[in-house]
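ESCALATION

Customer reports they have been waiting on this structure for their group meeting. Please prioritize. Original submission:
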Amino acid sequence: MHRAIGKGSGKLLSTLLGDEDAERVGDEAKELHSRFYLETAELLRPFDQAPELVRALAAKDVRVVLATSAGPDELDVLRKALGVDDVVKDIVAGSDVEATKPDPEPVKVALEKAGTAPEDTIFVGDAVWDVRAATKAGVRTIGVLSGGVSAAELEEAGAIATYDDVAALLADLEKSPLATLFS
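Update from on-call: job pushed to the front of the queue and completed.
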């Protein structure tokens, strides 16, 4: 199941159940997931050093746009957990696009919101679907490990670099590919 995380809910259900069963139980499954997510929101924590990475990039005048498959209710929970609304330029949510990752549409919409060209942008993600979506949009990707997906899988999907976690990326910020955005 972990390997399907990062896809939009419809694609995730199709991967796990097949198209026919996903169609049959999709709305109910999405409702149950959303309800559980909201009921357990206080348990949600950002990746270690993720808020600090976003703030460090914003302090260097990097335009940060978040891209997620989350719906509006879940997005509110994620935003509160991350606590960086004051430095994030914009957010692309599942409700902002017709096609979810691994389709490149969320990344293309993020590019529009950031006002940047693909070659001047780097996507940071922890799922193969993140890397594939960004690569299809012409955007370089840095992979961070969060469990369930290996560095080799992220690199095979097209990541230009991988880090053990967000904290390692932040520690290496000045030498990482992200440095090309502010050097």
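Sent to customer with the following note: Residues 71 and 125 are 18 Å apart (CA to CA).
Escalation resolved.
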